[in-house]
Design brief:
There is one protein chain. The chain is α+β, with helices and mostly antiparallel strands and about 190 residues long. The chain is built from 7 helices and 5 strands.
Amino acid sequence: MFAAPLAEEVNLLPTQEKVQTVAELHERINRCNGVYLAEYKGLNVKDISELRQQVRKDGAEMVVVKNRLLKLAVQDTPAEGLIEFLTGPNAVIFCEEDAAAPAKTLSAFAKTHPVLTWKGGYVEGNVFDAAGMIKVAELPPRQELLASVVGGISAPVSGLVFTLSGLVSDLVYTLQSVADKKGEAA
């Protein structure tokens, strides 16, 4: 039989499955544009399943992970600041594509299910608390932001092209008028 202290140490040893889970989570966190934490305590299985489906439509995945394993997984990643939010039951949402859409989905779901609350999140290099995540959820979708940037860049160029084409047209009409007058004079 193991002595009591040795038995406790054996129970603290990680299993191969847990080591693999932490490694997979670590790799996934490094790949993601966003990692969100929400407290789901009080949601029933039907509501959790519905939320998972809605989040999946946004290109994200919601899972439940033990805080201890997630604390190990976020170490040495840009999302390391999430450690302070890892208390109590957490739903973890991994966003590998658009980070704003799943945040909007969670906020909309929380309006009809008030027991779902933001704890914090990591979005493209920044860690936010609950209030910050609410603001992230209010951002327009990525495609809309990109379109507005492209529109802002292309507007001055379009104006310049329009102005230059007007100047060239005016020059051609002026030269044609001069040529017509010289043709009449000859």
